[in-house]
Specification:
By secondary structure, the protein is α+β, with helices and mostly antiparallel strands. The chain has a domain of about 120 residues: Lysozyme. The chain is about 35% helix and about 10% strand. A four-stranded antiparallel sheet has the order 3-4-5-6, with no helix packed on it. A two-stranded parallel ribbon has the order 1-2. Helix 2 runs parallel beside helix 6 and helix 3 packs across helix 9. About 45% of the residues are buried.
Length: about 260
């Protein structure tokens, strides 16, 4: 094989201009491992990367959001998603860079990665799982099957349907940008050693607060207690009450 062009952070930053600011450098080994583990680095690598990145870019706001902005009530009692208990809609709304949605899908990706995301759904908002869950969905989780195969055929619109179920002009923009940026002979380099241990704690509880099940979460060393509707927050121990004065917040990288 002749000389090939290695994928770099600069390539990704040219496709997603905000990715570098949003922490791409620190996540680079996880991204590379995702590409290799879920066959994005095989076949027609340029088209697989372009299709994967266009969907991640839109789903995550260029690696900014790790949790769906919507409150999740539209998913309440959705049996096709495995949401069979009160509060499952908000609790299992989209998490990760390709938003894993529903109790069933949290369970499935957890079984694949060896982490109990059904009991701890917010772990999918942490690294490396935000990336790994996106790769797993891309290769194994979509009802459309292996999305790499559509990318090989240049059928990028089917990969969009396989992720969100409808057309999306923003994603198409990222697709064409990626094709312009990525070299035809691009290869994905081997990642450096990556940390596999969960970086934070997130545990569900049978306790209720104002009638809602509760999640306990450690973010940045501070301990929080939050109800599953994501609008009522109670600080515990060293977390200041005034930190939760604003309603309607959602998880982004770096905290709440």
């Amino acid at each position: 094989m002749g000389f090939m062009t290695e994928l770099t952070i600069d390539h990704i930053a040219a496709i997603m201009p905000n990715a570098r600011t949003n922490g791409l450098k620190n996540e680079w080994p996880y991204f590379l491992k995702t590409c290799r583990d879920y066959e994005i680095a095989q076949g027609n690598v340029k088209q697989r990367l372009a299709a994967f990145l266009m969907n991640v870019a839109k789903e995550s706001g260029e690696l900014y959001y790790v949790e769906e902005i919507a409150d999740g009530w539209d998913y309440e009692w959705r049996e096709d998603l495995g949401n069979t208990q009160q509060g499952d809609g908000p609790r299992y709304k989209g998490h990760g860079y390709i938003q894993t949605t529903g109790r069933l899908n949290h369970r499935r990706v957890g079984e694949a990665l060896g982490v109990d995301f059904e009991a701890n759904p917010l772990l999918l908002t942490e690294q490396p799982y935000a990336w790994y869950s996106a790769g797993w969905y891309w290769r194994y989780g979509s009802s459309w099957g292996n999305l790499n195969e559509y990318a090989d055929a240049g059928d990028f619109r089917s990969t969009i349907l396989g992720v969100r179920g409808g057309s999306d002009a923003d994603r198409e923009h990222y697709w064409w940008e990626a094709l312009n940026v990525l070299p035809d002979d691009v290869v994905v380099p081997e990642p450096d050693e990556v940390e596999e241990a969960p970086p934070s704690e997130a545990q569900s509880s049978d306790a209720l607060l104002d009638g809602w099940p509760v999640l306990r979460l450690v973010v940045g060393g501070e301990k929080w207690l939050m109800t599953q509707d994501r609008k009522n927050y109670v600080a515990v121990e060293e977390a200041p009450d005034e930190a939760f004065a604003t309603e309607g917040v959602w998880l982004k990288k770096g905290g709440l």
